[in-house]
Amino acid sequence: MAVARSSTVTLYGPGEKVLLTMNRQTVQKLLLAHFRITRSAGTQAELLIVEGDEPNAFAAMINGRRMIAINIAMIKLIGENIDEFAGLLGHEAAHWAMGHADSSKVRSSTIQGISTLVGVGLGVAGIPAAGIITGLSADLIEASYSRDNEREADALSIDYMLANGFDPQGAVQLQEKMLKLPVGLKVPFLGTHPSGQERVENLKRLIGAKQEKAGVAE
Ligand SMILES: [Zn+2]
Prior knowledge:
By secondary structure, the protein is of the alpha+beta class. It contains 8 helices and 7 strands.
């Protein structure tokens, strides 16, 4: 990973293959959001960027380490919108906080995963923390959460966002972006979760209720 002086950060996979180039400021904001959101969730997990052509993210035990992984297609979809990243991180951090990602059910299903991932762990200031990790199989992780788990993770993500000054509308925007993806593109993150439109409505309702409550409490 290139660090010094450049305004961009390049993530390399095996054989020096360029996986992704990101704005350094966006990487730093992403890392800070990850730190704050996981702290609010009372959980610890490494942030991992993995290969992938279809937007996806997941919380999983990978090679014995607690991880929150975001794939490259998802990073490209989100772009520079840190509120959308915060919503995504909040959702995955909640899976850890509530123990959804800990179950043996999840771990055994990952072994049967279909595709091999290449991941780059991110640490402070974009310095790789976890190094390059190869030979991961994690496609089926999100599929093993129940719908109730998913709704719970969405609700908690709003709490974490509000607690850290992120705009919770970011969570809605990200879902709406995913709903607009070309029909036929199989999006695991969307496919294994409550249907997109239902999720958008739920998020909007939650945000309204939580903001109202916060307003009353002040
Ligand atoms: Zn989920």
